[in-house]
Automatic annotation (TrEMBL):
CDD domains: DTBS (cd03109)
Gene that specifies this protein: bioD
A single BP term in Gene Ontology: biotin biosynthetic process
Protein's name in the database: ATP-dependent dethiobiotin synthetase BioD
Enzyme Commission numbers on file: 6.3.3.3
InterPro entries: DTB_synth_BioD, P-loop_NTPase
Function of the protein: Catalyzes a mechanistically unusual reaction, the ATP-dependent insertion of CO2 between the N7 and N8 nitrogen atoms of 7,8-diaminopelargonic acid (DAPA, also called 7,8-diammoniononanoate) to form a ureido ring.
Binding-site residues for Mg(2+), renumbered to this chain: 16, 43, 99
Length: 205
């Protein structure tokens, strides 16, 4: 079984949408270890709403906090401390899609970051969209992961930017797992359509 870790070059770049597409494409299980904010409409709830298959198991968060801020600060507000040693990958015989919180170096506590949750065997999917500064954010994220020895691929989400995409790919050498257009609505049908497009690439990933 394979584990896919979905991270992004920043917050709000489309990680949950990409995680939903991967989960649907593989009929995989889904797990978000650390959730902050929107507990009533969490990322796990969004995944449940967007997928169509009946094989996926949505595993509970290891930590969840009310405030929509960095995990280390959200935990502190509730008098808690995030201990990565207490974050255990759920047992499953299925493929597993894991979604990070924010970007790669978002702090969990004073010493650990989201990066510390990414095991060596995980295949890392970096979600990128285009804005002023996104090339730098993309190169920093991808090259940091490559330097640590991870298997990295990229998903471009939103309005295309040929010049940005070309330079990111030229400077990193990573493969594009897929592209997502700027969709006016996101629902099960949209996710299912993209899942069909992504499935072949995921099988060989």
């Amino acid at each position: 079984m394979k584990q896919f870790f979905v991270t992004g070059i920043s917050t709000d770049v489309g990680k949950t949408l990409v995680a939903a597409i991967l989960t649907e494409a593989l009929e995989a299980d889904y797990w978000k270890p650390v959730q902050t904010g929107a507990l009533e409409d969490s990322d796990s709830a969004t995944i449940t709403r967007l997928i169509s298959n009946d094989k996926t198991v949505i595993h509970p968060n290891s930590y969840s906090f009310k405030a929509p801020i960095s995990p280390h600060e959200a935990a502190a507000l509730e008098g808690a401390h995030i201990d990565p040693n207490k974050i255990h990958e759920p047992e499953t015989d299925n493929d597993l899609v894991i979604e990070g919180a924010g970007g790669l170096l978002v702090p969990l506590n004073d010493s650990d970051t989201i990066l510390d949750l990414i095991m060596p065997a995980y295949k890392v999917i970096v979600v990128c969209n285009h804005y002023l500064g996104s090339i730098n954010h993309s190169l920093l994220t991808i090259n940091w992961l490559l330097g640590k020895g991870y298997d990295v691929s990229i998903v471009f989400n939103g309005e295309p930017n040929k010049a940005s995409e070309e330079i990111i790919l030229k400077k990193t050498g990573v493969l594009v797992l897929g592209r997502i257009k700027k969709e006016p609505i996101i629902n099960k049908d949209i996710v299912k359509a993209y899942a069909k497009e992504f499935r072949k690439a995921l099988v060989v990933a």
